[in-house]
Amino acid sequence: KDQINRGGEKVAAVEVEEQLLTHPAITAAALVGVPDERWGERSVAFVVCTGTAPGVREVAAHLRERGLAGYKAPDEVVRVPALPLTAVGKVDKAALAQQLPRP
Length: 103
Hints:
alpha+beta, GMP Synthetase, Chain A, domain 3, two-stranded antiparallel sheet, globular
């Protein structure tokens, strides 16, 4: 799914992913929506990085500088060594979501 519904606001994952890739430390990124009691869904950015991974605040500031609305910033940033791929070569977002603890 490439759209996240966070508190009634629609967030296009591809738009955020493209901007995440403009951060100098991020070499690959995937934005995943996960269930949230308060917001309906919250967004988690899975990132592959060189050097130190940026935190949530740094990512939010970077995205704001790139012109994205504040609600589009991920609620969490998780560093991963690589993004898992499906058999057809697409990022396996379901596998990424399963890496998170269940509420």
